[in-house]
Amino acid sequence: MSRATRIPLWALAAGVVLVVAVTLLAIGKFGAGTLPERNGPPVEDLRVERTVLRPGEIELTLRNAGPDPVSVEQASVNDAFVDLEGGGSPIGRLGQGTVTLDYPWVADSPYSVSLLTSSGVSIPVAIDAAVETPDGGGGFLLSMIVIGLYVGVIPVTLGMLALPVLRRGGRRWITVLIAFTIGLLAFLAVDGGLEALELSTEGSGVFGGAALVVLAAAVAFLALSGLDGWMRSRRSEAESAGASAWRLALMVAIGIGLHNLGEGLAIGSAYSVGELALGAFLIVGFAIHNTTEGLAIVAPLAEQRARPLRLLGLGLVAGGPAILGALIGGEVSNPEIAAALIGIGVGAIVQVVVQLLPAMRDGSGRLLGPANAVALGGGALALYLTGLLVSV
Questions:
Q1: Which domain holds residue 373?
Q2: pTM exceeds 0.85
Q3: Which of 245, 267, 188, 260 is nearest to 359 (CA)?
């Protein structure tokens, strides 16, 4: 046996990665001195990530997306120069800075803000309707928790109450309901993906925008696939459908939970800037919308013995992230990061759909028999129609 074959595979792979990493770091550190200097004016690309309004002041969080340091020297609101705090300090590449404008804004009025850099570049900022930004105190945290309960935990748990009805329907109706669930989840994935891509365009683009959403979705899909493979290897008995009923229900709950995390993020971030009317109609809309998700969780359990504590645990897994998302959303100032978190939910949902497909086969072994095809389309249509009740 040669000496190379005696080296463990993991050590060989680690050595290759180490050599590549050291070489690239050396090029990055010392290679710049071998290149010609760049001529011309500095490239300034400063972008606004968040706007916070307090009585008598406007606070802007800035991100430098360009290669050169940028400093803000002056600011104007509606073409009138105003006092500026936090300006003059250079913001480096990918760095973040905050400037505060002293201005007595009026609620519900639109404003046009312009920031002037040291080189004379003007950065426009539009405020469609000035609304005071809620603070992150105890009242805010309590509000986010209550909203998460209303739109996540409670409706999902209500949907799970349909389990006794499913039990009496027989195997044929179970496969139809699973097809309905797959249609529901597939629509969630498409809708969530489109929302994430749209949200990513509202950010600075520094972190990749749409590419970051796709990467987050892919990582979530691969991570959950690996987790499922590990869980499957831990079971000794063979499983003809590819996964046990409880594990399928858990995977559905995880996927829906990550999607509800995205909903919570949207609610929290919108609430933090005063752009969401938290009325009874909105709460009812989300409740109906998420009740169908409870049905999706219990669909694989129609032939299993119900355990109330485990069912409650599944409800918390699926609905609880709405609370966490609302709390995080109130603090996340970067739309790209929020979009990436929604992308994680999309990847999780796609992985759940892959897990559920084998259980959708009817007695003839077909995936798309007449009943399943109707149920598949019905699931997507049901979620679309209930989604119309949600007004953001």
A1: 138-387
A2: no
A3: 245
